[in-house]
Model the fold of this input.
Amino acid sequence: MAVPALEIKDLQAWYGESHVLHGVDMVVQPGEVVTLLGRNGAGRTTTMRAVLGLTGARKGSIKVNGTETIHMPTHRIAHQGIGYCPEERGIFASLSCEENLLLPPVLKSADKGMSVDEIYAMFPNLAERRHSQGTRLSGGEQQMLAVARILRTGARLLLLDEISEGLAPVIVQALARMIHTLRGKGYTVVMVEQNF
Done:
């Protein structure tokens, strides 16, 4: 059996004094798309953030492709081939779409990131808006850009937090097609969503 892309055992996490996660267990196999469903405050985003070491203290076990990462700093965890798209997207508003795509470094993993041409083939909207500033992109285009930026790094395990939040149904459908395409290319995706 293949080594899991992500294996979490008895994960505990804190924000300051607040004990937020209490014994989370999860196994995600390579090429799977797994969605964490639940109401606000259930710990879905905190689980994603804990995988990357973006919470306070953490205890338990988090293995990425068989490598224990619970005691690694965030920058070393990212180099295990993980890409994170936070709910707030985090694109650089003053840079053009294409400048945002050229910004991320390539991770030191076996996988090369997607080229800009491959990104534009997957996201034709971004090709059309390549010279537009981040602030001039629609919410859906900003979301596509945030995911596309991760794909440039070579990450094969994608953590996507509420990527459909507040977007028009036609954009949500485009993002769903993107997830299916990525799965077909062998990417592993863990998503946080309220809407199945």
In short: Helices lie at 44-51, 74-78, 97-102, 116-122, 124-128, 139-151, 169-184. The longest strand covers residues 18-28. The mean pLDDT is 89.
